[in-house]
């Protein structure tokens, strides 16, 4: 039996990005002893990379904005597949969460009259994104971290111990959620630096691990995004919702190859940047779909007037939702009108004075100067689609963020499904993290205090199994696994990324996804033999070998769901089913992991089967439907929904 350090907490939060930190603050403020675990250094979560801003209908720049308009935009962006109650709570509560951040010390950019400034973004009817230059995520995390430190100081004054009620375990990776019967009972993980194992026992576990982008070759996501939380939930017996919906951001860098995929923020377009093809044509006017025709400008003149007079002009088509822009760029490149390195041109240099570009987009200026030797104040950028965000995720209850099927398990942030439907609007993630992070922390604390003396117990046998699973890569040639030579985890990862990029990428075809599923099955078998050398002290090969389990499970969910959904909607585009089909509007796809004998939650992840079920969505509440014109609803709703 391996040596495993054990501690007891009330709430364990896995992930210290915006969602995890907000959940931890809430749980601690509601009296729960709370532990936060993160893979990277504290403060270095993916949220730090968020550039554009936080969407919240505060109406600071256009008083026409309110939660109802934000709700409408979010549902339109998600093509009405959003879990509507989440979209409602999100639109209603986002402004309070931004103001709250300000009271905790966040310094937002200001309007001339001193209010929090808000900028335009794709799919948002009004300027809505509260921002700090193009470094909003950094300020968000800095503020939440500062709040955590303030709470720890408060605890020190009372108990003499900074970490008595709120403790951060950094550079630690969780590999399993532990269970007592059906209920969550804690987590198992390892310290990345020492390789030592630990168990945190707790009746409530909040998963806030972010996204899955590292399964794709071209991505804006950082090394942390290996779909761990999605896989942890699957392995614990909780289903994943609508995993086919992966967002390809239209503008990632395409050159040089070493930085391909790095994000070029949408603020560039929100602030006036335009997209052109190799012929110099502003091509987005050719790609406005019927459902959006009335809301977008038909000429360059009108589009340009909108920046100064949004009340009397329609928005530029560069600000269509991301899925539309990404597909348009893809089509231009395919038609041979791309830029020299396989993207299109994004130009701010002819649209704004150099000093304004440097002030409003400082990170973009430095990013291009340092990584591509391009001066964006003097020449256009070359950009193309990059895997950016996953709309699919752990199926949760809208109000409490409780994961379906596993009492005591909660999920918030990018890892949770439902909120964004088939496509997320830019800026709606940072607000989602705050709104549902808080809700997850609140309900986790309540759940934990409700367990009283009946706290779930950690089963030693599960701990031993988790330890054996984690150690498997060190003995890849031994025993049962000796059905082939040991495999290099880096090679497997590269093959996985190539497969997902080529066969389950931005435009999908039935035969390619079938091919992908065959390849994923082969990779899963080979991953069983992923072997590493050396020892457990900071060993990145070992870490990757463990992450592979998660990436492979999650990739299979994406591919299976994408094959099943025979329509194009939001982030899911099928060449062989090119249009949105109203019959699919109210269909959710749920992925679960079953063991080979049919039981739920395989103990052996590599042998478990991903199964897919369909479920009808809950009808949208009539007062929320009444916020839309009937003509618009006809474009989205299923026949029977319209009839009702
Ligand atoms: P994260 O911030 O990624 O945090 C995940 C945490 O989980 C990390 O602490 C990680 O270490 C930890 N973790 C993961 N796996 C494990 C494990 N197994 N064990 C322990 N810990 C684990 N959205 C907007 O709304 N506005 C924007 O302007 C914007 N800009 C963006 C720019 C870029 C370049 C990118 C990539 C994304 C952007 N997004 C933006 C999206 C947004 O940043 C993310 O969706 C959001 O930050 C996710 O936050 P999170 O709290 O869910 O996860």
From TrEMBL:
Pfam families linked to this entry: FAD_binding_2, Succ_DH_flav_C
EC number(s) per entry: 1.3.5.1
Domain named FAD-dependent oxidoreductase 2 FAD-binding: residues: 10-430
Cofactor(s) this protein cannot do without: FAD
InterPro entries (UniProt xref): FAD-dep_OxRdtase_2_FAD-bd, FAD/NAD-bd_sf, Fum_R/Succ_DH_flav-like_C_sf, Fum_Rdtase/Succ_DH_flav-like_C, SdhA/FrdA/AprA, Succ_DH/fumarate_Rdtase_cat_sf
Coiled-coil ranges (or none): 506-533
Record-annotated membrane-spanning stretches: none
Entry keyword annotation includes RNA-binding: no
Entry GO MF terms: steroid dehydrogenase activity, acting on the CH-CH group of donors; succinate dehydrogenase (quinone) activity
Keywords: Coiled coil, FAD, Flavoprotein, Oxidoreductase
Location of the active site: 322 (proton acceptor)
Residue stretches making up the Fumarate reductase/succinate dehydrogenase flavoprotein-like C-terminal domain: 493-590
NCBIfam families: PRK07803.1 (NF005866)
The name this protein goes by in its record: Succinate dehydrogenase flavoprotein subunit
Organism, scientific name: Streptomyces gancidicus BKS 13-15
Primary gene name: sdhA
């Amino acid at each position: 039996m391996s040596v495993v350090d054990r501690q007891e907490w009330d709430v364990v939060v896995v992930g210290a990005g915006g969602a995890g930190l907000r959940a931890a603050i809430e749980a601690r403020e509601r009296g729960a002893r709370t532990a936060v675990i993160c893979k990277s250094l504290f403060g270095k979560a993916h949220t730090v990379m968020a550039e554009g801003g936080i969407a919240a209908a505060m109406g600071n720049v256009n008083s026409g904005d309110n939660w109802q308009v934000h709700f409408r935009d979010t549902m339109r962006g998600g093509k009405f597949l959003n879990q509507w109650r989440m979209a409602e709570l999100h639109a209603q509560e986002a402004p309070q969460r931004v103001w709250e951040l300000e009271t905790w010390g966040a310094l937002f950019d200001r309007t001339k009259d001193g209010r929090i400034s808000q900028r335009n973004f794709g799919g948002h009817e009004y300027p809505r994104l509260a921002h700090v230059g193009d470094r909003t995520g950094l300020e968000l995390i800095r503020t939440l971290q500062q709040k955590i430190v303030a709470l720890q100081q408060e605890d020190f004054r009372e108990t003499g111990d900074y970490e008595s009620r709120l403790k951060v375990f950094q550079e630690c990776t969780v590999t399993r959620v532990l269970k007592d019967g059906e209920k969550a009972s804690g987590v198992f993980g390892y310290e990345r630096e020492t390789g030592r194992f630990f168990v945190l026992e707790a009746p409530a576990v909040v998963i806030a691990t972010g996204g899955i982008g590292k399964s794709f070759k071209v991505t804006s996501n950082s090394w942390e995004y290996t779909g761990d939380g999605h896989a942890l939930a699957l392995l614990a017996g909780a289903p994943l919702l609508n995993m086919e919906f992966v967002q390809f951001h239209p503008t990632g860098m395409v050159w040089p190859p070493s930085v391909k995929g790095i994000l070029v923020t949408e603020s560039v377009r929100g602030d006036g940047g335009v997209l052109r093809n190799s012929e110099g044509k502003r091509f987005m006017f050719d790609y406005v779909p019927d459902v959006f025709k009335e809301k977008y400008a038909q000429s360059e003149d009108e589009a340009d007037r909108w920046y100064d007079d949004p009340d009397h002009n329609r928005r530029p088509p560069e600000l269509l939702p991301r899925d539309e822009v990404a597909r348009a760029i893809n089509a231009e490149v395919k038609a041979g009108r791309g830029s020299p390195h396989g993207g299109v041109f994004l130009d701010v240099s002819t649209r704004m004075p150099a000093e304004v570009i440097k002030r409003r987009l400082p990170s973009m200026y430095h990013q291009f100067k340092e990584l591509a030797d391009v001066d964006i104040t003097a020449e256009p950028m070359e950009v193309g689609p990059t895997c950016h965000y996953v709309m699919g995720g752990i199926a949760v209850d809208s109000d409490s963020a409780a994961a379906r099927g596993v009492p005591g398990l909660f999920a918030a942030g990018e890892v949770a499904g439902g909120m964004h439907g088939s496509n997320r609007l830019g800026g709606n993630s940072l607000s989602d993290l705050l709104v549902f992070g808080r809700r997850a922390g609140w309900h986790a604390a309540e759940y934990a205090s409700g367990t009283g003396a009946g706290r779930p117990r950690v089963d030693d046998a599960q701990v031993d199994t988790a330890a054996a699973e984690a150690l498997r890569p060190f003995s890849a040639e031994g025993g049962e696994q000796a059905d082939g030579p040991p495999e290099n985890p880096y090679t497997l990862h590269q093959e996985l990324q190539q497969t997902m990029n080529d066969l389950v990428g931005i435009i999908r075809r039935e035969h390619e996804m079938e091919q992908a599923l065959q390849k994923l099955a082969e990779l899963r078998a080979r991953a069983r033999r992923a072997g590493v050398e050396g020892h457990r002290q900071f060993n990145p090969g070992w870490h990757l070998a463990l992450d592979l389990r998660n990436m492979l499970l999650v990739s299979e969910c994406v591919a299976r769901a994408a094959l099943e959904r025979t329509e194009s909607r939001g982030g899911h585009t099928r060449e062989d089913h090119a249009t949105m089909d109203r019959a699919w509007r109210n269909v959710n796809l749920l992925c679960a992991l079953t063991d080979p004998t049919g039981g739920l939650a395989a103990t052996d992840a590599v042998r478990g089967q991903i199964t897919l079920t369909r479920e009808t969505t809950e009808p949208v509440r009539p007062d929320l439907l009444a916020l839309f014109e009937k003509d618009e609803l006809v474009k989205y709703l299923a026949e029977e929904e319209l009839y009702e």
